[in-house]
Amino acid sequence: xxxxxxxxxxxxxxxxxxxxxxxxxxxxxxxxxxxxxxxxxxxxxxxxxxxxxxxxxxxxxxxxxxxxxxxxxxxxxxxxxxxxxxxxxxxxxxxxxxxxxxxxxxxxxxxxxxxxxxxxxxxxxxxxxxxxxxxxxxxxxxxxxxxxxxxxxxxxxxxxxxxxxxxxxxxxxxxxxxxxxxxxxxxxxxxxxxxxxxxxx
Length: 201
Prior knowledge:
This protein is of the alpha/beta class. It has a single domain (about 5-195), classed as NagB/RpiA/CoA transferase-like (Rossmann fold, 3-Layer(aba) Sandwich), CATH 3.40.50.10420. The protein contains five helices and 13 strands. The two termini are about 30 Å apart.
């Protein structure tokens, strides 16, 4: 088996384990509130004027409960959505009313608003990016769903834009296999701690 294939196999095993851990996690609402609260208490959050929040799907750390609060912060709040080509686009969110349940019951920007020029944001405009993931390690390594949506997006972020991942403690591993193109997080916030990652430097 080639090195690439064995890395992929190890990643798939860890991805299954991380999913199972996350699905079994109890008190998700309460822990999510604690995690998102820590995110919004970061100095990087205070210093940023344009912040991207992901909107939780399935068993991810829940962010939607705190979006309303973020919208009242006076910052430009941006959320991603996935276009027909499987790429993430960025939407300037001004009200929870601008969201609707889309495919797979995922909360996303309303169809008719997505193409409005004033709603579109470039990744280079972001000062802080909240990143979801399936599993993470103590170096800031990230494992997504394997589709590379976030990798493509993060590649174009400014070098000084902080990348901060949210995860439950049960999604943290000693080390996950990473490939050349994988991007390391600056910080990972769990319900128990803030892990300092390697970042992109």
